[in-house]
Amino acid sequence: MFGTTASLTLFAFAPFDWFLDDLYGAFMEVLARVLGMPALEYAFMQRAYLAAICIGIIGPLVGTFLVHREMSMIADTLAHTAFAGVAVGLFVNNALSLSLAPIHSALVVAVGTALLVELLVQYGDVSTDTSLAMVLTGGFALGSVLITATDGGIAVGIDAYLFGSLATVSKASVGLLVFMTGLVSAAVAVAYRPLLYVTFDATAARAAGISVTWYNRLMVVLTALVVVSAMQVMGVILVAALLVIPVATADGSRSFKRSLLAGVLVAEITVVTGVTLSYQYGLAAGGTIVLTGIGLYVLSLVYRRLGVPTRMQHRTGRWRLNKLSERIHGDATAEPKADGGSDDERR
């Protein structure tokens, strides 16, 4: 469903076939025998796991920047406009008897929408959340209108895009996702420092000669690429969760780079566990992955709230020193007076 002849021609070449069937496929078969999981020998499950691993990489790579910019909602907005793009592709196929891949039309619409949001914020004299709300509702409205315009004729075809499916992850889809993973990873690696500067202090970045507008547009375009690439497994409705939940779970790292890498690790655990549970119990892949991610987030939140020391804190002794200081000095939040001393000092 997600592939076309052009996609197959592009991605089903000898090196990728060799990697997917001979290298990766052989590794998964060995892993299936070692773990006693026959499902890993099935070609569609091998493709699903590879797609999930790719999503687990690119989701936090972009999501970490979005969360620290407090722009998490843009992922949900682009997901809903990607739904409109899917509906456009299916509508054109139904009305004109063409073979346009809906994922390609979703990619075009999502990237165009990402740039539209930036233009609305920059020139439309509207706030970011207002522009996101208008574009989100407009995209979903367009999709629903196109579905009903064909008397529901494309409603069946759009279900897999809405909720995600392991069975519909084709070789062409995996090839596209592997390509997008390389593209997004390379873009973040090359533009890492300017993106980091713009994320934490856009004013200083602009004063330093960095094109804040250009890097803002780069970030929203990368978000669109991630959303469209991941929706084949996650579904349009839930795809934004994988850009936010792993990042929130990994929050608290000592540096931005560690937070980013920790988010990728959490995302990989989330998607692999979610895909496994989805297959074992016949559940929706996207929903299972999201619920797994929320479960990990709750565990991390409880872990942090209980004040459990991290390994780094144990190693440096900082946690013990902090606790000892609290016992000796008690509440150290006394407000200093104008002369720099406290009431006790002046008495």
TrEMBL record:
Q: Which InterPro entries match?
A: ABC_BtuC-like, ABC_TroCD
Kindly list the places in or outside the cell where this protein is found, as annotated in its UniProt entry.
Answer: Membrane
Q: Which processes are annotated in GO (biological process)?
A: transmembrane transport
Name the family the entry cites: Belongs to the ABC-3 integral membrane protein family.
Please give an example of a GO cellular component term from this record: ATP-binding cassette (ABC) transporter complex
Q: Which UniProt keywords apply?
A: Membrane, Transmembrane, Transmembrane helix
Membrane-spanning intervals of the chain: 48-67, 74-92, 98-120, 161-188, 221-248, 260-277, 283-303
Q: Which PANTHER family match?
A: ABC-TRANSPORTER METAL-BINDING PROTEIN, METAL TRANSPORT SYSTEM MEMBRANE PROTEIN TM_0125-RELATED
- Signal sequence: where? none
UniProt-listed Pfam families? ABC-3 (PF00950)
Q: How does it sit in the membrane?
A: Multi-pass membrane protein
Task: Kindly give the Gene3D superfamilies that the UniProt entry links to this protein.
Answer: ABC transporter involved in vitamin B12 uptake, BtuC (1.10.3470.10)
Q: Indicate what this protein is called per its UniProt record.
A: Zinc transport system permease protein
Q: Which domain of life is it from?
A: Archaea
Which organism's genome codes for this protein? Halorientalis regularis
